[in-house]
Amino acid sequence: MIPSIDLLDGRIVQLQQGRKVKIWVEEEPLEFARRFSSFPETQVIDLNAAMENGNNKEIVRDLCRVVNARVGGGIRTKENAEQMFRAGAKKIIIGTKANKEFLGLLLKSFDRNRIIVALDSYNGKVSVKGWKESTEETPMERAEKLRDYCGEFLYTCIEKEGLMKGIDWQTIKRLKSICKNELSVAGGISSQREIKELNALGIKTVVGMALYTKKIGEFK
């Protein structure tokens, strides 16, 4: 399981369907993140940067000191990527700029296994720019096109995100069948059973709302 930390206006939040803020964490981000220091990976997303509405770079840098961070949100230039790696990110997540040209540029300087391509999907189509714009590409089409340019794919079902009503099994299984890259999924996870079933398939789970609301148990 990969805990998720989403940053908005300097605070940790949890959203529903990428829009509605359901949880504002009162605790300071650095202190809150220490709870996840023992996890192999923690996902840190700068929502402001993703939506092109400022950024939380200083907080991201602080969090990279206490968790094994995979960092995403607004990484759209090689300089952005370099900044995140210098800050201590173990991996970076590329969404809007996930194309062969940009990823090829990154691969000249960084190991493929440190690059994750985001497959953020709404109604079966990939969304970009902080989930504000939809493309005509399906997650499967993007995965097939970019599987040689990254070590891992992160599939998020936007319409299920934050609702804790179950995951998009159909798309997840299709993605798993078409590429050998590592695969992690987010959106709708609601139980330990789902996490175990995904793990049995070799798929990692990124958990936010179900963790913060203690639906899958306590965390300290």
TrEMBL record:
Pfam families: His_biosynth (PF00977)
GO cellular component: cytoplasm
Keyword Amino-acid biosynthesis: yes
Keywords: Amino-acid biosynthesis, Histidine biosynthesis, Isomerase
Family the entry assigns: Belongs to the HisA/HisF family.
InterPro entries tied to this protein: Aldolase_TIM, His_biosynth, Isoase_HisA-like, RibuloseP-bd_barrel
Domain of life the protein comes from: Archaea
Keyword Isomerase applies: yes
Stated name of the protein: 1-(5-phosphoribosyl)-5-((5-phosphoribosylamino)methylideneamino)imidazole-4-carboxamide isomerase
GO biological process, one term: L-tryptophan biosynthetic process
Naturally occurring in which organism (per UniProt): Candidatus Iainarchaeum sp
PANTHER family associated with the record: 1-(5-PHOSPHORIBOSYL)-5-[(5-PHOSPHORIBOSYLAMINO)METHYLIDENEAMINO] IMIDAZOLE-4-CARBOXAMIDE ISOMERASE (PTHR43090)
A GO molecular function held by the record: 1-(5-phosphoribosyl)-5-[(5-phosphoribosylamino)methylideneamino]imidazole-4-carboxamide isomerase activity
